[in-house]
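Hi there, hope your week has been kind to you so far. Do you reckon you could talk me through the fold, stretch by stretch? Thanks so much in advance, here it is.
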Amino acid sequence: VNIEDEETPEIIASFLIQYYEEAYEIPPEIFLPVEVPDGTTLEKWLSEKRNGRGKVSLKVPQRGEKKALVKQASETAAEQLNIFQIRQAKDTVKQEAGLRELQEALKLENPPTRMECYDISTLQGTNTVASRVVFVQGTPQKSEYRKFNIRTIAHEGPDDFQSMRETLTRRFKRYIESVENPEALAPGKVDKDETWRLLPDLLIIDGGKGQLGVAVEVLKEFELIEHIPVIGLAKRFEEVYLPYQTEPIILPRKSEGLYLLQRIRDEAHRFAITAHRTQRQRKGVMSRLEAVPGIGPSKRKALLKAFNNDIEAIRGASIEELIAVAGITAKLAEQIKATLD
């Protein structure tokens, strides 16, 4: 378990619910690597499931033998998960079974050969990023992953619903431009990304009724609601929401279809968070370079390109190495060193 990942507390909370929902025995103390959201509520729920045999406490050891045991358990779990995912990715029989289960559960005309999943990441309340991941025949197509830097809420604060609306609007606008309305592109512009031309057999939205409602509105706007099946996958209880249905679908916990949905959702999480952190790091680099007198946009761009966006590489470069960058004089190189050191 990567305890620095901001999604980890949610994942652990979800696991606790899934595991102890069917567990025969629940211990009075459960040791965790991080605190989980709604910990008090979870403790109460777990205590009730002990049927009067005492309360359950969720604890995060800070030192000693118990902390070491939690660390060892986390490392073992991560290793086993990696092995399982590798095996699962290669097991086409299970993938096909998962696709058939989804077809049946969601009442699709065909197995969802191509699935797209969208997730929103807003860490520490800034720089919202959305992600698209694509699975074909149950396997990830990483060359088709895309990120969206959210533009519309820069001055209004984070809004996951508006972010999802912008993301899906941009995605299907690209579809319209590339397939049905090519003249909408600027004169002479060629869209080389052919993946926008492909519609998913299943559109998966990370979220419950609210996010699903946004997706339905966007699909209606582009007159695609009859052509693209869409679902919302709620995090905590892994509930699957369908348009116009009040009650969610609950897939069996050991269902290959549920595992496939979880896998694509988790991959969307991972990709969104990775993209978000990359964006934050780049902004941090830019802000530090902006503090250097005499370094304008073109020189910053040249420096970033020369040193692979690595501020530490720029800071550690010699005067001679800095001068080798186009537009950087000896005087500017000295100012860079003085400002960044």
